[in-house]
Design brief:
- This protein has helices at 107-113, 150-164, 220-225, 228-236, 251-262, 265-277; strands at residues 11-21, 31-38, 50-56, 65-77, 84-91, 94-96, 103-105, 120-127, 140-146, 171-177, 202-208, 240-246, 281-285.
- Helix 5 crosses helix 6.
- Helices cover 22% and strands 33% of the residues.
- The protein has a six-stranded antiparallel β-barrel with strand order 1-2-5-4-3-8.
- The protein has two domains: 3-127, Translation factors (Elongation Factor Tu (Ef-tu), domain 3); 140-285, Nucleotide-binding domain of ferredoxin-NADP reductase (FNR) module (Rossmann fold, 3-Layer(aba) Sandwich), CATH 3.40.50.
- The protein has 286 residues and is an alpha/beta fold.
Length: 286
């Protein structure tokens, strides 16, 4: 779907409760964890859903409101049963115009990163969750993410272990970032995922750029290849769901790793089509 296809008519007001930078000051990127309180029951929200953020204008091109989707990184009860605290993971973004070479600020990301506790904003949604939690707790989850693509996985992992409990299927998280400081929810600044390291069914695998100062890519291909036996076993298991989230540039190295794993592009395409037809391969790419 395109952003213009979403129904933004169901709006809700939110109050900023927290805005915490979760990448250290020495990191090149600023990523913030925001907690937004809305007057809606937590039952209205599910792990994996998204909410729309309305940025008031006017904006270039004559738009009065700029609309942007963000995956929910967590949901909890607010100060009363009728309130929910929605958590978002937001990277302050900048873009370089390919024609004039000038740098521009991302509208929604800078708006959100500039918010302070007590500020009011307008949200819409929630919108359908891309990553559904399988009803069978013996299902396996192969989660592959990059950058802020960790947000829906954080919500999903917390939900199955903290709220559902008794998850017996394998949960494998393969996650990449430019540097160790930018491994979101897995760095010295904030390590939420450490709470699940003692779960016998959970394992996390990390990849960082070998030379981030030279813009070397995150070695996703090597991360998958170094754990090829386990990944292939999961892919071939009919109880496995594969969820991929992050930047578009992660898709090519992932495809190369899976083509190498299955011996040919034709065989990998066949396997992937089979997974997609069974709704066991889902991507959220931006």
């Amino acid at each position: 779907m395109r952003l213009s296809d979403y129904d933004t008519g169901h709006q809700m007001q939110a109050r900023v409760m927290e805005s915490d930078r979760i990448t250290p000051e020495g990191s090149g990127d600023e990523v913030r964890h925001l907690v937004l309180r809305v007057h809606r029951s937590p039952d209205r929200f599910e792990a994996g859903q998204s909410v729309g953020v309305a940025v008031p204008g006017p904006h270039a091109g004559g738009h009065e409101v700029h609309f942007r989707l963000y995956s929910i990184a967590g949901v909890s009860r607010g100060s009363s049963p009728e309130e929910s605290d929605l958590e978002l993971c937001v990277k302050r973004c900048f873009y370089v115009d390919e024609f004039n070479g000038e740098q521009y600020s991302g509208i929604a990301s800078n708006y959100l990163c500039d918010l302070k506790a007590g500020d009011q904003i307008t949200l819409s949604g929630p919108f359908e969750n891309a990553f559904r939690i399988p009803p069978d707790p013996s299902a396996n989850l192969l989660l592959i993410g990059m950058g802020t693509g960790i947000a829906p996985f954080r919500a999903l992992i917390r939900h199955i272990y903290t709220k559902l409990g008794g998850w017996v299927g394998k949960v494998r998280l393969f996650y990449g970032a430019r540097t160790g400081l930018e491994l979101l929810y897995m760095n010295d600044k904030r390590d939420d995922l450490k709470h699940y390291y003692d779960q016998t069914t959970f394992k996390a695998f990390e990849a960082v750029s070998p030379r981030p100062h030279m813009e070397d890519p995150i070695p996703f291909e090597d991360l998958i290849r170094n754990n090829q036996a386990e990944v292939r076993e999961l892919i071939e298991d009919p109880a496995t769901f594969v969820y991929v989230a992050g930047l578009e540039k992660m898709i090519e190295p992932l495809d190369k790793a899976f083509i190498d794993m299955f011996g040919s592009e034709q065989e990998w395409r066949r396997r992937r089509r089979e997974l997609e037809s069974q709704r066991r391969w889902v991507e959220l790419i931006y």
